[in-house]
Design a protein that fits this description.
alpha/beta, globular, 9 helices, six-stranded mixed beta sheet, eight-stranded mixed beta sheet
Amino acid sequence: KTNFSQPIMLTKNQTIKTEITDMNNLGYGISRQDGIVIFTDGGVTGDVLEIKIIKTAKDYAVGRVERVLVPSEKRDDSLCKVSKRCGGCAFRGIKREYELELKRGFVMSAFRKSRVDAVINPVLTDGVTCGYRNKVQYPVAPGGDYGYYARHTHDIIKYDACLLSDPHLEPIARYASEYIKNAGANVRHIYLRRGQMTGETMFCLVSPSDRLPEEQALISGLIGRFPEIKSIVHNVNRTDGNVILGKDVRVLYGRDRIEDVLCGCRFGISSLSFYQVNRGAAELLYREAIKRASSGSPERIADLYCGAGTIGISFAKAHPGISVTGVEIIPDAVKNAAENAELNGVSNAEFICADALTAPLDGFGCVMIDPPRKGMSQGLVGRLCRIKPPHIVYVSCEPATLARDAAALISAGYRMADVTPVDMFPGTGAVECVTDFVI
């Protein structure tokens, strides 16, 4: 190996040689010089690089790749031509097997930091690494060009096609861009959703205006060219900031939602509904959670943070003898969940609008939890530790908060089972997990 042991003092704009020894979940290569950690965007474990220091701090520095002196055998630059400028795919430049190895390592690291002894299984994947995103939200530049923002900027990167997005959506986005240019429409985002099992597609433009110019021409052009479009909606967002969607939705054509099939159940998806963007991997995640939740043959299950009811309804349909109560704080999501239960003929699931912190949880044999990235609130963790449901199944989109909450549950007397990571977002640094706890 190249010897870089000679101590150096890092300064901004300095050019050095360094060897990348690890990577983080943002896709930065990690190296060390004179006790200082250096994060280099685009560095891959095993690379020997010439980098320029672009930022220094007390205990770390940030580098930019100037030259790849010795490329790592884990490197794979063959796929996306704009990934280095876009920044959307942190792991697009590495080989697939190393990506899965890294993601398992991120989960292991999270539990080590929380001082929880955990068995981490290999990462589950459905093997699909391109074209899996069934939803896209493209920012639109003045003039009608669209793309994704370059990392840490509001500069829009144009490209031929995003490798992560369902390929059926790109021609529709191009048509929308031409409409925006020709009609002079003030549009902030092009927003598209596709039911990958049904083929049904939703077209949505987000703008600050009450109406779109030449609406009828837009509708006629879309349904004439893309018969799979079953819903055309206009979302009005007059607010500034980073929130893409406003609360006002106008249906211009067809229904206010499309449908898709997940775990053998049919779900309605509106423009404001949460629905997993990777349907295939979501099935792996949900089936793992359902398998764990049914292992003790409970009579009643509570499904906290249930959203539109996708996990709870999937469980209820697979286990008609077990009753499911979904808990969600957003009224529209609760209404959507009840409609989805009716759509699937599921009579053993009910949904209530309540905060998980105050919802009735007595008498449930199992509590399923699928919280946001910040994990459970301290109040909810404390409540579960007090009432001690016999079985808790935890679906997590953030290993660090899962490990934190696991430490609290274990301190209260729970035993944690093995942890199964699921690769919901290939090409990115995100990884989801499922585990369960028994008292």
